[in-house]
Design brief:
- The complex is a heterotrimer of chains A (181), B (392) and C (383).
- Chain A has one domain.
- Helix content of chain A is 13%, strand content 31%.
- With 392 residues, chain B is α/β, with parallel strands linked by helices.
- Chain B has one domain: Peroxisomal Thiolase, Chain A, domain 1 (3-Layer(aba) Sandwich), CATH 3.40.47.
- The longest helix of chain B has 16 residues.
- Chain B is globular.
- Chain C has a domain of 131 residues: 3-Layer(aba) Sandwich (Peroxisomal Thiolase, Chain A, domain 1).
- Helices cover 37% and strands 19% of the residues of chain C.
- Chain C contains 16 helices and eleven strands.
- In chain C, strand 5 and strand 6 form a beta hairpin.
- In chain C, helix 8 packs across helix 13.
- Chain C is globular and about 55 Å long.
- The chains are: A alpha+beta (181), B alpha/beta (392), C alpha/beta (383).
- At the B-C interface, helix 3, strand 3, helix 4, strand 8 and helix 9 of B face strand 3, helix 4, helix 5, strand 8 and helix 11 of C.
Chain lengths: 181, 392, 383
Amino acid sequence: MKPERVPGRYIREEDLRRLPGVIEYTPTARYSYSAGQALSEFLRGLKDGRILGKLCPSCRRVLVPPRVYCEFCFTPTTEWVEVTGAGRVETAVISYIGVARERLEKPEIIGVIRLDAPGHAENSFDFAGLFHKLCGVTEDDVKSGRVIGMRVKPRWKPVHERVGSILDIECFEPLQPREVV
Amino acid sequence: MKSNIFVKDKVAIVGAGLTLFRRRLLETPRDLAWEASREALSSAGLTLKDIDCIVVGSAPDAFDGIHMKGEYLADGSGGFNKPVVRVFVGGGTGVMVPAVAWWHVASGLCKTVLAVGEEKMSHAYPHPQGVFAYIWDPILERPLGPNLIWIFALEMRRYMHVCNASKEDIALVSVKNKRNALDHPAAQAAAKITVDDVLKSEVLVWPVQLLDISPVSDGAAALVLASESVARRVTDTPVWVEGIGFTLDNTHWYNRDLAYPRYLEYAARMAYKMAGIERPWREIDVAEPYDPFDYKELHHIEGLMLARRCEAPKLLKEGYFDRSGELPTSPGGGLLGVGNPIAAAGVMKVAELFWQLRYEAGARQVKKPVHKAVANAWGDLMQAGTVVVLST
Amino acid sequence: MRVAVVGVGWYGFKPTVPELSFREMMFEAAVRAYEDAGVDPRRDVDAFISCQEDFWEGIAISDEFAPEPIGGVLRPTMTITGDGLQCVGQAYMMIKSGAFNVVAVEAHAKPSDIMSPQEIYEFSLDPNIRTLKISNPLFQAGLDAVAYMRRSGASREHLAMVAVKNKVRGLLNSRASHSAKLTLDQVLDSKPVIHPLTRYEIAGFTDVAINVVLASEDVARRLGDKHVWVEGIWWATEVGTGAVEWHEWGRMPSMRLAALGAYKLAGVEDPLRQTDFSEVEDRFSYMELLSLEELGLGGGGAHRMLESGYYNPEGGYPVNPSGGSLSMGVTLEATGLSRLLEVVLQLRGEAGGVQLKDVRRAVVASWRGPPTYTSIVAVVSRD
């Protein structure tokens, strides 16, 4: 039977620590990412409490997040178009762990939101969307599937707390049934 | 069978080898690359002198803990005064490696290629998963503090919703693969588990639970590819690389429906076209679809057009993808059973098909006769599809 | 069946490009390259290859950002971690295999976004060497320079001459942001940064995005007259960064092997006579001379040829008529493409202020820089 030989020696954490010549090293890797034309404007918009998209003159879709190109048509995008921020939940999950796999004190609900934006066909495969936290929904809403398709809108941080970041949106929350955005 | 008349020189895999896959191995990254290379070479009856070119695959440098990781792995992979190139398409690397090796030979420039996939995730502290904090868009995504499992969970949830698949249906993949892996000598996570075990395991990011996921691993795997003339001299059963395919979808993964991996379908179509395969669900005998998570295998089976959209869970329940089934998938145990040292895992899957097609897989050998096989790997932010089609 | 460069495009060649993100720079370069080639990436390009390294980008799977700005979405797109010329090598093989007709290659650099470049170079060193806590992680360049000088008899003056030749030449090149009106004395009077190299002999960094479109002979001829043939290309790694102790100090065997491979494919036996000029690695002054030697362009001794003026723009065999990396800046993994770009422009007669007369064929050479020993060489010509 192949493979005939499988080299390699398993070692436990404690044994590893006891080996001579183990090197510990923390890299210093710091970057200052240029936001560029599209995202700079987008972030400025967020600071003002607006979600901005950019129009592709070829396919006529408004892309959110905005970019200087439409990656499908390979055409430079042209006009800035503000979207309402309302949308519906495409998918949502409940996280019990943090970035480095540590258990969180309070679980977070995260979702992909399909935003209302001109140019996109109903239920199209590609859409204008954002990835963000969801609030005002329960774990049961998520597990039961009620949350998928739910209409939501952004909950903005107070003006003085907004700095021009995706976190200027605190989360997306369900549209109150009577509210029209 | 149609052969592609435009390709200059047919390319075959003539040898394969791999190391143990474990959470933590004593061997250094270069040692691992070397051990796997040596196994692959000796299985082909060749030495490094016989190798013209080298292709290395390894995923994020941050795991092994060295910038320009390909340069570091070079000599471990036999790269002493030889052409060496490193491929990196995230998790798709493992199957991209033989694809890149394919054109090294098909171009006529190299007669033999040593293709190595290596990953040493155990170097990363406090936990390798922390490395995935940096795969996100620095401006729009990282500030949210995303964990890698979030994106898989979002995709899994969407797939479950669109295809009406339950967690029980999906957990069967984990059960199947871990059981298959009991017969794989390198396996890290082989086990006899039940669907219940999966549903009782720790919930990480609902709906993803601990036993839905492949483990973090160290390991390496290697293949030897050769042109037709060399292949026929070296072995009686060369395994021909009949088709390769690769595609990347857009970076804005939250601007598209995650229920279906269309990028994989594009890559698969490319590979099938080259291989002259028109009805993969009928012509493919055995497959190794990438399975870092259980639902991903189903996702990829559909993307590879081995089942219709949303049909995979139903077929799985019927035993269609078992070793004794109509179209066995992950007969070696896959990532869920053998382990997931990212780039090495993809190469391991190709190696498994190599052995299956030569009837050398021993207890893992699938019941039915096998001539054509397909393997895929996936990577990046739900973007990369890499495919190879093999045949004897 | 031959392989040609049918289009080139670039954006940047400045120490910082603050107005655009790296993705936007890639887009600008790509648009220009496709326009130059006369191709629609969504229809005519069969594959897209990007050359990038995570730690230059600051993103743990930089491949994720490759497809969108270059027209590669839902197309065969992939990433090689290597110098741009290695990607050209891949494209060459892909086209030669017959399975691809048109392949676009991109590489970019935004070192201005990197706040801790020295530390990232340190991170590329073998962990055992890191524990030595050497203050400048580029020290290997100094070790090689000293060994080279001792073996060849080249002196500090010769190294300084390279810096003066290239940095002054760059004043005529609109893509050379690091040029300067230098004199030999200024260089020699300067303190070494990495002995024996002074700050003028170590190239600074530059932001750029470059896109090169390659095609098979049939397609190239259909697209027009501007094509430039890649007659041969090869690459080699002498030793990995985990085994630099085994490197032949003062030599670049990887470049020699790469050259031999490229010359064999191109049918070149006497490069000094059969090619007209070259763009070679000069991110450290000594590397220009060492590269020339290993490329078989050193005649009786590269430093002696340099001294005689042979490598000057008006000389018998111009070397780095663009001003090289010393005046254009090192563009990380796009360095090889920067050299190739200059060669393509020269051969087409589009090199502007640095245009040479009557040139038909050139050698392009790149080295991935310390601590690596990986080199790539190509022979490029026009009809």
